[in-house]
Fold this sequence. Notes:
The protein has 126 residues and is an all-alpha fold. The protein has a domain at 12-75. It is built from 4 helices and no strands. The longest helix has 29 residues, at 15-43.
Amino acid sequence: xxxxxxxxxxxxxxxxxxxxxxxxxxxxxxxxxxxxxxxxxxxxxxxxxxxxxxxxxxxxxxxxxxxxxxxxxxxxxxxxxxxxxxxxxxxxxxxxxxxxxxxxxxxxxxxxxxxxxxxxxxxxxx
Length: 126
């Protein structure tokens, strides 16, 4: 078995679940590598080596984001949460409240422009 972190017998898991597991483990590994390179670059006393380590860190970020995009495309719950939280302003803990309330403020998307004035549809109202 290539991953020892399965929590259920592998023969009971679908290919979709096994592929998602592969992606999640890969994402975790990429993010761990980002952390390691960041620490090494910051602690490094040689500026040329530090620059190489920062370059490597940025490559790992690219890999993590590519994997995250694959996960988004294959898990609608992840996709919905990314849509809610990414590219917002204001307190992160207020974004969901703002999004579900339809209000502006902290949960507004940067650069998001809506043709609506925020008053909702008047169709069918008398």
